Amino acid sequence: MKKMLNNQLVGLLAVFCICLNTVHAETDVIAVIMPKTSKIQKLEKGELSLIYLRKKLYTSEGNRIIPINLTSSHIVRKQFTSIVLGGLPEAQSEYWNEAYYHGITPPHVVASEDAAVKFVEITPGAIAYINACKLTDMVKPVAWISATGIFLQSPPTMQCSE
Amino acid sequence: MHTISKINTTLLKVNLMREFSTLLKSWLVYAILVSIPLLAYAETIPANTLDGFSLGGYAATKANIHPDGNKEVDLQNLSLFLGWEGDSRWRLFSELELEKPLYWASDSKLTVNQAKLNLERLYVDYNLSENLNLRTGRFFSPVGRWNLIHADPLVWTTTRPLATTRLFPQSTNGVMLFGSKSIDTKIVDYSVYVEALKNEDKERNLGDADNLKGIHVSLSGDQVLGLSLLEFNELTPIDKKYRMIGLDFQTKIKGWELTAEGFQRYFTNGSTSGSGGYIQVAAPITSNWYAVTRLDGIQMPNEDNTSRWLVGAAWKKTRGQIFKIEYVGGSGELSEAPKGLITSFSLLF
Fold it and tell me: How far apart, in whole angstroms, are the C-alpha atoms of residue B145 and residue B156?
């Protein structure tokens, strides 16, 4: 009886996990992308924050990392910045003024997610974040971030509208 | 008589040439600064960045009404940054500063004689690994917080806390290993540095110092906590060797900012050889105006204790532009820590 209950609990947990991983990506899941040729397979939050604060400028192979931002009013930028850097884009301005004083410029800004995908596709070392539904085969996802800020361990099952 | 007159004429010519040279330097820097677009801090890497080069800087003007009624106005400094980064592991950065290119005081006329050109920083960075870089050249000594970001547009007050100027060498000519690492939700920044060339800047209050070596570690999360440890010699008639420990702290809550730094210096025999620190609060009044207050003090061997208190306001119009007004009081008179009503405007470009 106890074993049966345990099995049922495990089953329920599995279903719950699948449900959690099935998300409406058009509104909430962010895919962090790099060129297909990049040797980086996966990035965690800490590494991403170092990259987007431009404290980490090179990969372990010595290749320059080129982080790309969306415009500061873009919803995906706001979501990404809040999760990874702990504040809205405008809250980072003092940090960037200080970094600029040390010769560190903020990431490039592109106008749209399509432009970010294109830039990453053709630029070695580039890294960007997009709504997961905008992902194409031309770039490689290296992290998945849910709306609640959880770094998903596997690609979510997405329901993207046309 | 004729010879004396000739010498006087020659001296006058030399003085005029010096003034002209200083003026020329000032205007050259002006011309360069004016000729580049006002990039300000920008969201994008500047459009005029050619082949990895970037150009920027800052300018600041200051006015001071001393408690005795004397007045001073000056173009405090003009700084020019030149940097380069390509696709390789190398980076270059330099800062050239023109101090007081124009100065006026109520008891003297407008002059360019106080102008001074300083090479503030000039270094090459080489990336050794993901978390380690090597810096070689002249750089700010990584001691505390203020010393690393002391540019006028980046700080809340026109005057600088005493403890950040008199207790340690502000710049290092040498090598530094530095990097950053993430630990959970926090970032650890670290640097280890050693002086390779003697600091020849005799203008520093500390005098010549050498054999400087130290480490700085900071932990950033919701707050920033930093620790500085250093050792150096002060080249006085009796060579003095110091060890120093410094702690710095900053937190930001709902627009408020609290910053504090404290330093304790010892002779190598363990006896105290100076200490100092400050605590500063900036609080938002409106969307652009901030109230600022600070208490700071320093105790040096064989000197009376010096303290400063400050109340003021700062107006940040846009990123990198700041207008400040403050009243500074306290004990003792020090040229590097003026008292009275002080106001300034500075611009990062």
Answer: 13
Distances B285 to A34, A97, B254, B289 between C-alpha atoms, Å? 43, 22, 12, 5
Whole-Å CA distances, B198 to B173, B211, B240, B346: 7, 8, 15, 32
User: Does the ipTM exceed 0.90?
Assistant: no
Give all domains of chain B, ordered by start, each with its CATH number. 2-348 (2.40.160.10)
The residue whose two tokens read 């004429």 is B9
Amino acid sitting at position A14: A
Per-residue tokens: A67: 């982080």
How many Cα neighbours within 13 Å face the side chain of B257? Answer: 18
CATH assignment at residue A133:
3.40.190.10
Q: B127–A100: do the CB atoms touch at under 8 Å? A: no
**Do the Cβ atoms of A96 and B85 come within 8 Å?**
no
Pairing of strands B223-234, B53-65: unpaired
Beta bridge partners of B126: B90, B134
Residues of B in Cβ contact (< 8 Å) with A60: 129-130
B14: three-class secondary structure by DSSP: helix
Nearest chain A residue to B84 by CA: give it.
A103
* Chain B CB within 8 Å of residue A105 CB: yes
pLDDT score recorded for residue B184:
83
Q: Which residues of A touch B320 (CB under 8 A)?
A: 97
- Using an 8 Å Cβ cutoff, are B294 and B326 in contact? no
Is the CB of residue B312 less than 8 Å from the CB of residue B285?
A: no
Count CB-CB contacts under 10 A for residue B132: 14
pLDDT in tens, A22-60: 444 445 899 999 999 999 999 999 999 999 999 999 988
Q: Which residue has the tokens 């970010």?
A: A116
Phi and psi at B4, nearest 5°, equal -60, -45
Residue A54's domain spans which residues? Answer: 2-158
Closest CA to B199 of B268, B124, B275, B140: B140
Helix runs in chain B, H state only:
2-35, 163-166
Q: What is the pLDDT of residues A102-128, one digit of tens each?
A: 999 999 999 999 999 999 999 999 999
The residue assigned the tokens 């820097």 is B29
**Is beta strand A66-70 parallel, antiparallel or unpaired with respect to A108-110?**
parallel
Average pLDDT over residues B215-232: 96
Domain count, chain A: 1
First to last CA, chain A: 47
Question: What mean pLDDT comes out for the span B306-325?
Answer: 92
What would the pLDDT profile of B44-63 be if each residue is shown by its tens digit?
444 444 678 889 999 999 99
